[in-house]
Write a structure and sequence with these properties.
alpha+beta; seven-stranded antiparallel beta sheet
């Protein structure tokens, strides 16, 4: 699967980024975005990281064992008030669905996210999967 060729397509909607390494407090720095933005715990298991933020559309990346008990990175839309208070979070959607939504808002934002995931992949932390959705 060539992910960058599929970004923005209907086929990409079902793509999920599968984690090969489980994030923990001891290794969370390996999942940094832009070198200094780290996922934060949202409960005793899951982590969240702002993936795309704008005045009218915000996506967080959710790191959790939420697809057949496999660790994945999925996307959730969030509402932010006062510049930093998260007041709402949607149910998670596949990575590809979230990235396509970002691409509609900002092609540059989607390309930045794609670069982040490719960095995780190059570092052996995870990979894109376009078939796991068939088993959910």
């Amino acid at each position: 699967m060539t992910v960058d060729e599929q970004l923005g397509t209907e086929a990409f909607e079902k793509v999920i980024f599968m984690l090969d390494v489980v994030p923990t407090k001891d290794n969370i720095q390996e999942f940094a975005m832009q070198g200094n933005l780290y996922p934060e715990p949202i409960d005793e298991t899951a982590w969240a990281l702002p993936g795309y933020l704008s005045d009218d559309y915000n996506i967080f990346l959710v790191f959790a064992p939420n697809v057949l008990n496999h660790w994945t990175v999925t996307c959730a839309q969030v509402a932010i008030e006062n510049g930093h208070d998260i007041t709402e979070m949607s149910n998670v959607v596949p990575t590809g669905t979230g990235m396509n939504a970002v691409a509609h808002a900002s092609k540059a934002g989607a390309i930045e996210l794609l670069a982040y995931f490719k960095t995780l992949e190059a570092n052996g932390l995870g990979h894109f999967d376009d078939e796991v959705w068939q088993y959910v």
